[in-house]
Amino acid sequence: NGGLWEYDYKHRCLVFDTYHLTDENISLILDKIVSEHIEYLHTYPSSALILCDYIERNQIEFKGSLRAILVTSENLYEGQKEKIEKYLRARCFTFYGHSECSAIAGWCEYSDKYHVQSEYGYLELIDENGDVIKEPDRTGEIVCTGFDNEVMPFIRYKTGDYSSYSHDQTCKCGRHYILLNQISGRWTQELFIGIQGNKISMTAMNMHSDIFKNVMNYQFVQNDPGICILKIVK
Predict the structure, then answer these.
(1) What number is the average pLDDT over the span 41-45?
(2) What's the predicted TM-score (pTM) here?
């Protein structure tokens, strides 16, 4: 497969390379999803949409047996859920979380409201003055306190992400969680363009690596396909 995928036997999953999503590779990936009878696809929204654009452009019918597409780590914008469900032929879910493990919230089988899982962490919304927001439909920054980190607890951790409480706090699923409206985060589906025209999610280019240990800030600049400048503040 030229390195397009590999099996992770520990977690019982098939991991696809999304750095080289050319038309030829997308065709191979879609065929693999079908032949392996994969039931759940966990990916960035931008990567799922690249697959959908390929299916739409080539007017093909995806014959996979997906039960759900789980998209995360990026904002999901209006109309994108519907497009993903149309071309990948399965229910699209998204959830909110972060590496600091202080909050998690996600859609259920009936609703596109974010259900805040209170056993995982305590979530608040604050305004620009740092005051706690109580009323619905008023946007504030997500602040959270995690319950699972026994080494270094994050207490009232300001995430830089934003949401508002849903006016209706009941859901058909029967779970008694606080419900949030749309969440807007820091990852906005920005893309690099590779030398072959392949699109690469900016979300994958993060600082979760020791190579950034002496970097305070960084910025990627791209003016031409396949060429990228990395600016850093030491």
Answers:
(1) 92
(2) 0.78
